[in-house]
Design a protein that fits this description.
mainly alpha; Glycerol uptake facilitator protein; 69% helix; 0% strand; globular; Aquaporin-like; Aquaporin_transptr; transmembrane helix
Length: 146
């Protein structure tokens, strides 16, 4: 389930970015953001009953650390997520000719001018912590059950 979800997540999210990034007159940042958001939500609901719908290695690690996922299952989920992301990227390479990729790198992000690698690392670390915190507080905290 994690493999399929990660494969689809990469194809949907990065594929959207590859098709519209930097398009003049478009709200491409909003479109790509919404695409990733709707994709992760629908995929988490779709595979949640099978694997927990983590679709993110940091979330998997967080669940292992707090004891909500055993170590062996965490490793297996991690492997499935990595293989799924590589499969998704491979499929995108088959879909998009290199000169048609508007991101220039399979939907990958870059560091904007004026920001250092340190700035980007800290921002990425903080937003990853926020994601893990939200998952832990909403999906697995017994106090959040309705």
């Amino acid at each position: 389930a994690e493999y399929i979800a990660m494969t689809l997540f990469v194809i949907i999210g990065c594929g959207c970015a590859m098709g519209i990034a930097k398009e003049p007159g478009s709200a491409w940042i909003l479109q790509v953001s919404l695409t990733f958001g709707f994709a992760i939500t629908s995929l988490a609901y779709s595979v949640g009953a099978y694997s927990g719908g983590q679709i993110n290695c940091a979330v998997t690690l967080g669940l292992v650390i707090v004891g909500q996922l055993n170590f062996v299952q965490g490793i297996l989920n991690f492997i499935a997520q990595m293989l799924g992301s590589m499969t998704g990227a491979y499929i995108l390479c088959m879909i998009f000719p290199k000169d048609m990729d508007k991101t220039g790198g399979l939907g990958s992000n870059g560091i904007s001018e004026g920001f250092s690698k340190r700035n980007a690392f800290i921002g990425e670390a903080m937003m990853t912590c926020l994601l893990v915190f939200v998952v832990l507080e909403t999906a697995v905290n017994p106090n959040s059950a309705s």
